[in-house]
Design brief:
The chain is α/β, with parallel strands linked by helices. The chain has one domain: TIM Barrel (Alpha-Beta Barrel). It has eleven helices and eleven strands. The strands form three sheets. The protein has a seven-stranded parallel beta sheet, with helices on one face. Helix 2 packs across helix 3 and helix 3 packs across helix 4. It starts with a strand and ends in a 13-residue tail after the last helix.
């Protein structure tokens, strides 16, 4: 694996591993043995920055799976998790309209519950401290300053090492950083969906790393998605319905020949392109297949010539994806 990258004051590999796909109900069924094997494959290939959430799977399933996989290897691993969508007992559900695949999310990031969220995640993961702790979504009924203030107490108490925020606006990022230094901001970003340029500008200005989630367009950018199983949650996203998928596969076909010319896969092209956007970008692709995991992580060692980047940008400028992605901020 190539040189480490910096998210705020946290050093991590240039490509992490998104564990969300390892819980049932996301991309179809999977057993825990397969999930553990996938995480072990990521670790062996250098993907030691592992991203999870207390909301992935039922009753903390994804965190517990990660905890099982990293047992005995804690010192090798940087663990990131999130809170706010798995509501604490007694917490009022605050609706957050974000659209499409998730017509309505329920969130609660009130300060009085945040310590309990973190302690539950620590138990699930079987660790003493969370390396990077994210607010999964800003609570529409709680000022982000209040949520981050409570998170900062976890840092003071040694339960959390670095703070992050996810799915925020540029203004929310700036406001959060005033309360406590923010190491990383997660946002959807890929060849499939552009980043908010103002968010990227704010992150650069404040020295905050950017962690793109769904960096392979929920699998679309692998070039292998032709249809979906009935239990695949991507069926809820208009960009993945049958007609849209056919149109989008045709639109993005130019990337296939470009990757072939370079002798790399489309997944590697998509990830290498992201890495070339900024030195503080660390994508977190997820996969269930050890061979694909190794392939994804190898993208960190691919250098794209400026002429190649120009060719890619020209293709992306022509592409008009049909349909909405998994998440469309409607705030």
């Amino acid at each position: 694996m190539t040189t480490l990258r910096t998210l705020g004051g946290l050093q991590v590999p240039p490509i992490g591993f998104g564990a969300m796909v390892l819980s049932p109900g996301m991309y179809g069924e999977i057993d825990d043995e397969g999930g553990v094997a996938a995480i072990h494959a990521a670790i062996e290939a250098g993907g030691t920055f592992i991203d999870t959430s207390d909301a992935y799977g039922d009753d903390g399933h994804n965190e517990r799976l990660v905890g099982r996989a990293i047992r005995g290897r804690r010192e090798e691993i940087t663990v990131a998790t999130k809170f706010g969508l798995a509501l604490a007992d007694g917490a009022q559900a605050h609706p957050l309209k974000v659209g499409f695949a998730f017509e309505e999310l329920l969130v609660n990031a009130e300060p009085r519950y945040i310590r309990a969220y973190a302690e539950n995640s620590l138990r699930n993961l079987g660790i003493d401290a969370i390396d990077l702790y994210y607010l999964h979504f800003p609570d529409p009924q709680v000022p982000i300053e209040d949520s981050v203030g409570a998170m900062s107490q976890l840092v003071a108490d040694g339960k959390v090492r670095h703070l992050g925020v996810s799915n925020v606006t540029p203004d929310e990022l700036r406001r959060a950083h005033v309360v406590h230094p923010i190491a990383a901001v997660q946002t959807e970003w890929s060849m499939w969906r552009p980043v908010d340029p103002e968010l990227l500008e704010a992150a650069r200005e404040l020295g905050i790393g950017v962690v793109p989630w769904s960096p392979l367009g929920a699998g679309f950018l692998t070039g292998t998605v032709q249809n979906l199983g009935e239990d695949d949650f991507r069926n809820n996203a208009p960009r993945f319905d049958s007609d849209s998928l056919t149109a989008n596969n045709a639109s993005y076909a130019a990337l296939r020949s470009l990757a072939a010319d370079l002798g790399i896969t489309r997944s590697q092209l998509a990830l290498a392109w992201l890495l070339h956007q900024d030195p503080a970008v660390v994508p977190i692709p997820g996969s269930r297949t050890p061979a694909h995991i190794s392939e994804n992580l190898a993208a960190a060692d691919i250098t794209l010539h400026p002429d190649t980047l120009t060719r890619i940008d020209a293709v992306l400028a022509r592409v008009k994806p049909v349909g909405a992605t998994l998440l469309q901020d409607a705030r």
